[in-house]
Amino acid sequence: MTLQRTAPPRPSWRDRVRDPGWGLIFVLPMLVLFVIFRFVPSLGALGMSFTDYRLSGDFSFVGAENYRRLIEDDLFFDSLRVTLLYALMYVPLTLVVSLGTATMLHHVVRGRGLFRGLLFLPYVTSFVMAGIIWIWIYDSNGLVNGVLDRFGLGPAPFLTGNQAMVLGSLAVVSVWKSFGYSMLILLAGLKNIPEDVMEAATLDGAGAWAKFRRITLPLLRPVIFFVLVIETIVAFQVFDTIYVMTGGGPARASYGLVYMLYDQGFKFFDFGYAATIGVMLFLVVLVISLVQRYVLDRENT
Amino acid sequence: MTTLTAPPAPAATSSAATGRRRRRRSGANVWLTVLLILASVFTVVPFVAVFVLAITPEGAQTIPQRLPDEVTLDNLSAVLSASSFLRWTLNSFVYSIVSVVVILLTAAMAGYAFARKRFPGSNALMWSFLATLMVPAQATLIPMFVLVSRMEGVNTFWGLIVPTLANSQAVFLMRQFIKGLPDDLFDAAKIDGAGEWTVFWRLVLPLTKPVLATLGIFVFLWHWNDFLWPLVIAQTDEMRTLTVGLSTLNAETVARARIMASAAISVIPCLVIFGVLQRYLVNSIATTGLKG
């Protein structure tokens, strides 16, 4: 149809020669990169999980040995528990902070651009940088304990205390560094809520809280759900802050899944086993994504 | 046609009611502003702290509630004169800038092909690119490392850079944008007898400038802030990037003022990007959903 409309001039021999191939030529550089550095390693992870691949490059196939070892490894289940616990702290906290700040930004009259910028600022730094600053903030001579000291409290062992405290402290660092992203996504969602719905509710005498609960939250649900899924996946990949701030400690209190993968791979050079942990990480992320799919499909029908 | 557009302005809500509402709103606004200031303190104070600690003499510090009595540039100059710090900075720049250039070019090419060309398997290929989004980078860390080390890429720039260039988010973003460009432009170019490369260089690249700029900022930040891949692939001191170098300083418990001075310097490029392109960055997250 379009061919008739645009009526190209008679196809020359060059057109006939070049047309079929050009798409492939343009896609070729990226395709080569993808094949070598995405497709091969993805299959490679699966393949390696059935071997005892060592640093030397020697390996033999061991069947499901790595998987058997994994289900008998307390360390693995502990790391899974650590990651889950961390996610249970990080995800709600980051949602509350980003939804709260997004709502405030949406309603504030003056200085919205300035506040939006200041709140988004930490997003442009690295987790390594965030970790280094927050080590000092959490230090017994640091910022928070300095303030606590003024009130005769403390020093609180943020990074050396019990597991809940350490994981909570790590979660706060990640929230600080990255809530700006979810805040902006939610802010865009808030802007899409029709103004007249709110006006009507106001005329009906609805208070701010009622409007938030009865109108904003329901209309924002898809966006909130998107943020929840993204942040949950991010939470399961936590590594940088743990590496910089606690090294998995104290006493493996923050020994998360990716940290275990790194530890097995690059401290014990047990590549086959580490690859198996990678496969597990993939499965966890896959399940989260499938749940997202399922819920979204159900909402749409 | 016009019946569906712009409803007339709501007729005369009583002015007294509006006034009351406005007054109540301004009361709420004070609270909103106060809360937002508190939230901004939460996000900004750590940055201020880094820069304050960076100019505080070693040992004189850690009374956090007041500024140092004495200010020094010793920490900063000590960091800058230590040869490895400058080398790490250079490495980070190479890692980030080469990645930006190559990803923008290859993703624009691939995006153009997926948006405007039909070739055998083009759909399947697009989907297989997208499917890799489901595989977290950490899950393939071990096979990637083995692959690159078998290709003798450990402690080399290409080993650091090339494996990170396969970026499906970039391809997908370019494809969406190029798909949205008007067909007439491409038809006109064809009628004028423009060759494929001419169309790409003279039409696609100039027209996609805004999205290329957005993508460029993100790719720069992703690579500048990247940690796990450089950590495993750059094992010698002179191949380290800034993030990896900072983490080793931190692990070696170098004097705190030194670490903070290093951190302060390393965050400057990001702050510059942020200062100059903040509005741009902020708007593009809302519209494209790019995630770091």
What does this structure look like?
Chain A: One of its GO terms (cellular component) is plasma membrane. The complex is a heterodimer of chains A (301) and B (292). Chain A folds into two domains: 12-48, no CATH class; 71-300, MetI-like (MetI-like fold, Orthogonal Bundle). Helix content of chain A is 75%, strand content 0%. Chain A is built from 13 helices and no strands. In chain A, helix 4 (74-107) runs parallel beside helix 8. Chain A is globular. In chain A, 41% of the residues are buried. Mean pLDDT of chain A is 86; it is low at 1-8 and 10-18. With 292 residues, chain B is mainly α. Chain B has a domain at 83-241 and 268-288: MetI-like fold (Orthogonal Bundle). Chain B starts with 14 loop residues before the first helix and ends with a helix. The model of chain B is unreliable at 1-16 (pLDDT under 50). At the A-B interface, helix 2, helix 4, helix 5, helix 6 and helix 7 of A face helix 1, helix 3, helix 4, helix 5 and helix 8 of B.
In short:
The complex is a heterodimer of chains A (301) and B (292). By secondary structure, chain A is mainly α.
How would you describe this structure in keywords?
heterodimer; A: 301 residues; mainly alpha; MetI-like fold; 13 helices; 75% helix; globular; disordered N terminus; B: 292 residues; 71% helix; 0% strand
Name given to the CATH architecture of the largest domain in chain A: Orthogonal Bundle
Q: What percentage of the residues of chain B does DSSP assign to strands (E)?
A: under 5%
Helix share of residues of chain B? over 70%
CATH homologous superfamily label of the largest domain in chain A: MetI-like
Shape type of chain A: globular
Count the strands of chain B? Answer: 0
Number of helices of chain A: 13
Cα radius of gyration of chain A in angstroms: 25 Å
Q: How widely separated are the two ends of chain B?
A: 43 Å
Mean pLDDT of chain B: 83
CATH architecture of the domain at 83-241 and 268-288 in chain B: Orthogonal Bundle
CATH topology descriptor of the domain at 83-241 and 268-288 in chain B: MetI-like fold
* Sheet of most strands of chain A: none
Task: Round the mean pLDDT of chain A to the nearest integer and report it.
Answer: 86
Q: Strand portion of chain A, in percent?
A: under 5%
Name the CATH class of the domain at 83-241 and 268-288 in chain B.
Mainly Alpha
CATH-defined fold name of the largest domain in chain A: MetI-like fold
